[in-house]
Design brief:
The complex is a heterodimer. By secondary structure, chain A is an alpha+beta fold. Chain A has five helices and five strands, in the order ααβααβββαβ. Chain A has one domain: Glutaredoxin (3-Layer(aba) Sandwich), CATH 3.40.30.10. In chain A, strands 2-1-3-4-5 form a five-stranded mixed beta sheet, with helices on one face. Chain A is elongated, with a radius of gyration of 16 Å. The termini of chain A are far apart. Chain B is of the alpha/beta class. Chain B has five domains: 106 residues, 3-Layer(aba) Sandwich (Glutaredoxin), CATH 3.40.30; 211 residues, Rossmann fold (3-Layer(aba) Sandwich); 64 residues, Ubiquitin-like (UB roll), CATH 3.10.20.600; 88 residues, NADH-ubiquinone oxidoreductase 51kDa subunit, iron-sulphur binding domain (de novo design (two linked rop proteins), Up-down Bundle); 73 residues, 2-Layer Sandwich (Alpha-Beta Plaits), CATH 3.30.70.20. Chain B is 38% helix and 15% strand. A five-stranded mixed beta sheet of chain B has the order 12-11-15-13-14. Chain B has a four-stranded mixed beta sheet with strand order 2-1-3-4, with helices on one face. Chain B starts with 5 loop residues before the first strand and ends in a 10-residue tail after the last helix. The model of chain B has no long low-confidence stretch (mean pLDDT 92). Classes of the chains: A alpha+beta, B alpha/beta. Chains A and B meet through α1, β1, α3, α4 and β2 of A and β1, α5 and α6 of B.
Chain lengths: 121, 617
Amino acid sequence: MKTLEDLRKIREKAQSEMKTRDQKARVKIVVGMGTSGIAMGAREVMKAILDEVAKRNLDDVLVTQTGEKGLSSMEPVVDVIEEGKPTVTYGNMNPEKARKVIAEHIVNGKVVNDYVVATQS
Amino acid sequence: MTLKRTDILLCCGSGCVSAGALKVKKKLLELFEQKDITSEINIIETGCMGPCDYGPVMMVYPEGVFYKTVGVDDLEELVEEHFLKGRPLKRLMLQEEERIFATKKDIPFYQKQVKVALEHCGYIDPESIEEYIAVGGYEALGKVLTEMDPQKTIETIKESGLRGRGGGGFPTATKWAFTRKASGSPKYVICNGDEGDPGAFMDRSILEGDPHRVLEGMMIAAYSIGANKGYFYIRAEYPLAIKRIKNAIEKACEYGLIGENIFGTDFSFDAEVRTGAGAFVCGEETALIASIHGERGQPNAKPPYPSDSGVWQKPTLVNNVETLANVRTIILKGADWFAKMGTEASKGTKVFALTGDVKNTGLVEVPMGITLRELIFDVGGGIVDGKKFKAVQLGGPSGGCLTADHLDTSIDYESLTEKGAMMGSGGIIVMDDANCMVNVAKFFLEFSLEESCGKCTPCRVGLKQMYSMLERITSGEGKPGDIEELESLGNSIKALSLCGLGQTAPNPVLSTIRYFRNEYISHIEDKSCNTKVCLDLMHFLIDKDKCIGCSLCSRKCPVSCIPGSREEKYEIIQEECVKCGTCMEVCPVNAISKLPGISEELRSEKTEPSDYRSLYT
């Protein structure tokens, strides 16, 4: 490294790998991973989301998991939480639907209404 | 790169490692493998997070949940509940009277703390230069090299009011300016990592937890004084700190942050590690330099100061680990930001190693000017087992004891010195009312006595004499005039010793005499240790009215000195008793008590005048 510019490049790359810790992401995707969620395939949904977010290099997106959401009949359930916008809850998810949500909602900002089971401000 | 959804920051400071942090990591990895979530979760070994009492501790992000005393047996449940199902496990969180402290910001221990030197300790992986760069690492060095000349850098440090954190509190910028002005070349920077106070571990924690920060501080100092070479002098008892600093130097070399023409400027730098053999006196700068030379670690008379003639007789800057750790933040956030914290003469924050009879022992960083009360009761959580606060020893074996009357003293260099203690390197040992202050003074004096290098007679012989007197006093052989003699001897040693060790070693004795004179008097005149710590000045007694004659004490006594019978009841032969306390522990009816003073039987013997001269031979 020879310039401050080089240092900043390294920093940006390193920061994106540490973003789980900074609690400042633009969008938070929360997968419900209670017992019923896992039974309905939440693990696969989680894996698909992680994979898609990584592939698209979305470094302002945080993926995490939570417990039982109470919507057992609609598992797996995924929340998309964005600062200043109503929280969108998607239900009956599968890996395919999850990838679509990433493409449409997270990248293009269009809520995939077909899968939405609730919105909450 | 696969995306991670969880970062587990596992504290791998020495405290947590002793408590089993590495076993926890191994088991976690096994469990992740079983559940097939290895690729989704990061485990990062960090430096000390502070609350060592609760080790092993971990922080789990993105939630920021804090878990304490995580044992290998807890992991199955933790992985299942939190890492798989996303339900943080309340059982392992910090709880106090029904309240649960889920995240770091909820925990009272952290609330009054302001982290500057420890900013990223416990947050980043100390072995990863990338993580250090991610949190702004080497930005300050870049700024100094490209935008500021050495003079301006020293000016900034001067405005910040930073003073040496190793104990003396000498203004850092003045030291830098002296070394810069000194004629002679090449010049050197030394990072003093020879932390030797019993109970102090802040320098170790910084070196282990955020080594690049110290290296960056050293490089900024080197640039300011015109040096191209740095030495880390770290004691051999700190193998992990040595490993991490060596690793940091290596990584910085790989990235071109150490070497020729750093950031394309004229500045070149190289650093190496020198290990000390563990002599306390080598924390003194001239002794440290002698040790780097390969000579016996003994201090030399000053002047010449190291800033004129130090390592290899060249101008040398010696700064403490914590001092250097503050530098980069001052450069990045500005001198004003730093100077806003603290008191008129003591700026910024100070790291303390809080130990002793306090609930939350560990590593804390608080703004200067906070009171002892806030530090001990708010950050430290008060005294354990609901006992009463008695005294606090500040500054290790060179420092002094303060009492409950001083709890509202502001923690800064001047206020502490004025009260007879000192900031020192930042070891704080809190004592409850079960401590005998004469015994405490003896303990610290013994440490200094053993660590005296032997060069100066007042320190070598004087400390030995003081120690013998304390031994006499605590064994019931004290005589009138002892206190005055201790004071006079102590003051002479302070005045006549060459280096800081001798100049401060009598402090624990002098300050306990100053604030706990009554305890000395009762040891000497009443032959009584009221806290029942000094074995020769306390005894056990069986209350014959309570004794049921069960003979349990008699059978358990290791020296068989409790004769008696069911009818006669039992009695301790005081002359033979070794004060082990076993009888008291086993007595089913609590008929045995521990009492201060010498037993009736022995009293006449001890109070008779004896030939004291024989004790000096």
